[in-house]
Amino acid sequence: MYAVHTTFEDQDELHDLVRAYQEPLHNLPGLDIIPLKWLHLTMQGIGFADEVDDVDAIAQAVQRRLSPIEAVTLRFDRPLLDPEAPQFHPHPVDGIDRVRRAVRQGIIDVRGAVGETDVWTPHMSIAYSDTDGPAKPYRDALASVTADPVTVTIQRIQLIALGRDEHLYRWESVADLPLGTQSLYPPRRMHGR
What we know:
Elements: E1 2-7, H1 12-22, E2 31-33, E3 40-47, H2 55-66, E4 72-76, E5 80-81, E6 86-88, H3 94-111, E7 124-125, E8 127-129, H4 136-143, E9 150-154, E10 156-165, E11 168-178, E12 188-189
Antiparallel strand pairs: 1-3, 1-10, 2-8, 4-9, 5-6, 6-7, 10-11, 11-12
C-alpha cells in the first residue's frame, strides 16, 4: 500500500529515548518491539499499490502543498499505553496537523478524494500488542523509566510503499517530500522507483 508517513531514520536522540522505553518491555510477553529503523508517525494512506497508478502525480501535488509549510518541531515526552501499542503522542500537534492537511489536499488535488477519515491522533508506536491481558505490567514497565524528553525537527516526510510482515510495518521510500521552500523542486525519487 502507498502511504505518507514521517519516518525517523536520522533522529539519534529520539532513538535513544525509544530504546530506553523499549528496554523494560523486552521481558514482557505479547509485544512485538518495533526496530528503530521502522519507527514512524502514521499520516495518511493513499491506497493499495496495484490500485494507485498516479503515485508520481500525488507526490508532486503533495510537495506543492507542502511549499508554504516550514519545518515542524515535535516534542516526545513519555509513551502512553494504548490497547494496540505503547506509543508516544508528540506535541505540539498544530504544525504536524498542518502538514497532514497539506498531504490530504495534495491527494485530493489528484484523486478528487482521500479515502480515510480526517480524524487523526498523531502518534509513534514503539511496540505492537499481539495478545489480550492486563495492562498493569506494561504500564509499570513504562513508568519505571526515567528519561528526558526529546525535541525533533521534521524537515521532510516520505511517500512510501508499505507492507506488514511478521507483525511489523516495513516500507520502501518512494519519494522524499521536503517541507517549505525546498519543496518547490520536484520530489526526490528513492531507490529507482
